[in-house]
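Hey team,

Sharing the Cyanophycin synthetase run so nobody has to redo it. Sequence (936 residues) first:
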Amino acid sequence: MTDTAPDQTQGTPSPDLKIIETRVYRGPNIWSYDPAIHLVVDLGSLENFPSNTIDGFTERLLEYLPRLDQHHCSRGRRGGFIERLHEGTWLGHIAEHVSLQLQQEAGHDMRRGKTRQVKGVPGRYNIIYSYADEGVGLAAGELAVRFVNYLVQPTEDFDFTTELEKFIRIAERSAFGPSTQAIVDEAVSRDIPWIRLNKFSLVQLGQGVHAKRIRATMTSETGSIAVDVASDKDLTTKLLASAGLPVPRSVSVRDVDDAVSAANKIGYPVVCKPLDGNHGRGVCLNLQDADAVREAFPIAAEQSRRGSVIVESFVTGKDYRCLIINGRMEAIAERVPAHVVGDGVHTVAELVDITNADPRRGVGHEKILTRITVNTAARELVKSQGFEMDDVPPEETMVKLTLTGNMSTGGISIDRTFEAHPENVEIAEEAARMIGLDIAGIDFICPDITQPVRETGGAICEVNAAPGFRMHTNPTIGDPQYIAKPVVDMLFPPGATSRIPIVAVTGTNGKTTTSRMISHVFKGMGRKVGMTSTDGIVIDERLVIRSDASGPKSARMVLQNPRVDFAVFEVARGGILREGLGYQRNDVAVVLNIQPDHLGMRGVDTLEQLADVKAVLVEAVPRNGFAVLNADDPLVRKMRRKCSGEVVWFSIAESGSEVREYIEGHCRRGGRAVVLERSDLGDMIIMKHGRRSMQLAWTHLLPATFGGRAMMNVQNAMAAAAAAFAAGAPLHDIRQGLRTFNTSYYLSPGRLNEIDVDGRTVIVDYCHNAPAMRMLGDFVDKLGESLNASSELGRPSRIGVIATAGDRRDDDMRELGEVAAQHFDVVIVREDVRLRGRQAGSTAELVTEGVRTAMENGARCRQVETVLEELTAVQHALSRSNRGDLVVLCVDQHQQVLSHLESVSHLAQAGARSGDEGGDPDFVKPDESEADESEE
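Structure output:
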C-alpha cells in the first residue's frame, strides 16, 4: 500500500477490523513469488480513520512493538513505515506490518508484504505477507488484527504482553530444532528444495528419485542396525573393546542385586545408566558404594525401555563430544554440566534464576541453551558440595546442578574442534566406523583432549545416533562450527542433482491432453513420469489416486514419490488462486490459451485477470528454463514479458501472417518455435531452432488428430512437442511419442475417445465450455462430412449430449448451448452430479435456452431435450440414434459412461452373432411417457 491516507474522519473510531477470508499460498502465487498468507479484511468504520486521526495510536503501537521503526515500507529506508504512520495510513496496512513484526519477535525473519484495496469494495483490503511456518504466519495475522483493534479502543480483556508470549510459545512448539534447522538452512543456501513431512522434524530434501530424508540428525543414509547397536550401550562397549578402543569396564544387569555385584567386581566408583537411554536421562555418576548403587539403579532402570541397566567404571576427566560425519571428525565440544558461579552476593537459587534469564536459554531444544531445572537430584548435588539452595556461595565458586554435561539439562559448551590430538580424532572416527553410523556423537571422558587418551587415561563412554548439533553450531564459548555443510555434502555430493525436471501445463482448454502427450513422450524415453491431471495422479503409468488432482497438493505428492524422475503437472486456475503452486519453480511452463471460462469466480471477472492467474506458471520459470506460449492467443503472447527464461512459441498461423513473421524474427535471433506448414500433401509440424527447421510429423499421421480433423489436438501436439523439445527430448523421441499417442481410453480417458456401438460412431469427451465446444464442433463437422461420404444409409444424424458446471455465469451457459446448436441435429442437455450452488435443473435450463435461441436464428439443431442424469442421458442419446449416426457425449463421469458403452457394444455384438434381431434393450426407444419422465 503506497498512498498516504487523507484526513477523512467521521464520528468516533470503533474496533471494526475483522478477517473475512484467509488463504495460505504454499508456493508462487498471484501476489508473490514466495509462500505467503493472504487475509481479506474489512475495516468497517475504520475506513474513515487513518492512523494520524486516532489519538495516541502510533505512540501506543511503537510502545509495544518498538522494532517497527526498522521497517522500510514503500519509502525504501529504515523508518519509512513510521513516516507513513504519522502521515496517516489505513489500519489494514498497519496489520500487515504488525503481522511481519510478530513473526520477527518469534525468530522468523519475515520482511515482505503488501496491502491492496479490493477493487470496488470500500473498506475491504487484501493483506499479503510472507511466512516461514504456516501455523505461525496465520496466528500472527489473527493476533495482529486483535492488537490493532485494541489500539483503536483499549479493553481490559486483552493483554498484549500475555498474548505475545502465547504466540511465541506457538512458534517455539512448531519450530524445527537447532539441528534440523541448521541442515534445512544449508540446503536452502544450495537451492535444494525441501518439504516438511510432519509437524515434527521429518523433512525431505530434494525431489522424486533424488530425495533424501532427515529426522533431526538421522538421515535416510543412517542404517537401522547401526542405530540399534548405538542404542544398546552394552553391545556398543563390547564392539569398541573388540577394536582395541579405550572403553570403561561395564556389565549389563536387570536387577539391583546384580548391579551391586557388578559394581563390586568392577571396583568403585561406578556409573549406573540405562541400557538404551538418551540426553543423559537416568545417568548416575561417581557412585562410591553399594548403597549409592541401590539408590541409582531404579533411576536408571526407569529410563530404559528394556529395563536393563549398565554398570560401568567411573572415568574421571572432562566431558567431550566428538561429532563424526561420514567418517570424518567435524567438530569437538567440551560439555560443562549445568552450574552457577558464586558472586558472594546471591544465593544458589537466585544465581539459577539469573542464569535462566539469559535470552539464549529456553525450554528443551527450542533455543541454543536450555534452562536449568532445579529438582530433587539437583538439590542433593548442591548439598553434596556443601551448600543449600538458600546459601550464598563464595565468589568464583562453581556449584554444579547436574553431573552430566548434556545441553538438554542446562549445560554449556566450549568449542575444542581444533585443539584435539590427532590420535584422539582417529579413535573417535574408528568408533563411528565400528558402529556403522553416518552421523555419530562420540562421548569422550578424559583429562585433556589435547593429549592422547591412551597415555593420560580416559575412555569412550557412549556412542550416540542422532547427536544434537547446537553445542557445535552455537557454542557458549568459542567459534561456531558449520557442521550442516558436511551433512548436506554427504546427502548431495558436489555436482549431485536434487531436483527433477518439472513441466507445468495450464490454459483454459487442452491441459489434460497436452499433459498426457508430454508424459507419453518421456515414458517412451524410459523416464519414470509422475503426472497430475483432472483425472488423478499417475505414477509410472499407474493411476494411484482417482480425483481432480490439478492442484498444488497433488503436485507435492508427486515430488515426494521416490520413483519419479520427471514430473508433468496440469495446473488449474482454482489451485493457483487457492494455494498457489505446490512447488518453487517449473523448468518448462506451457500456456495453451486464455478463453472465457471460470469468470466471475474468486475475484476473476475478466480475461485479463484470468491471464494474470495463468501467468504465475510463466513467472515461476527460472533463468535457465522455458515458457512454451501460444503465439496465436494475444493474452498468452503478452506473457513473454513475465518470463525470466527463454520463450518457445507454437502457432498454427499461416505463413506470411503477422504472427508468423514475428516468430520468424524470434528464430532468427536464435529462438525456438513449433509451427504448422500447410501444403497440398497435408499439414506438417515443423520445429525451428535458430535458422534450423526440422520436420516433425504430418498431422494426419498422428492418431490423436483423427487424420488431422481434430484441430485442437493438432495444437495440443504442437505444444507438447515444444515442451518436450525444451525439456531436452531428442527429435526422434518426440516424433515417436506423438505417433504412438492416441485417444484410446487407456492413454487418454475421457478425451475424444472413439468407440463403435452397434454401427454408431460414439465420441466421449469432456467439453464443458463454449470455446471448447467451438473446437469440438469443428471436429464434429469434419468427422460428420467423412461419415456422410462413406455412409450407405443416407445422411447420418449428429446427436450431442452436453452440459456445463454450475459455477459458470448464466451467459456462458447460454453460449455453450448456442454453439452446440450450430453443429448437432439433436442436442440432449444433462447436468453434473455436483450442482455447485445451483438448483437442480437450473443449469440445464440455461443451456437449453441457448440452444433454442440458436434454433430460432436458423442453427443446424432441430430438436433439444433435457435428461438431467448423465447415464440416463447417454442411454437416451443411443436410443435416439441409428446405425451410421455420430453420437458425441460430453460427460463428467467418463469411466462409468465408457464402461456402459463397452457393455452395450459387447451385448450388441453377441446379439448379432446369435441372430437376435430384437437388439439390446438399451437401444429400444422409450415410449412417450418414459421420455416425458426422463425429461422431468
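Residues 646 and 847 are 42 Å apart (CA to CA).

Ping me if you want the raw files.
A.
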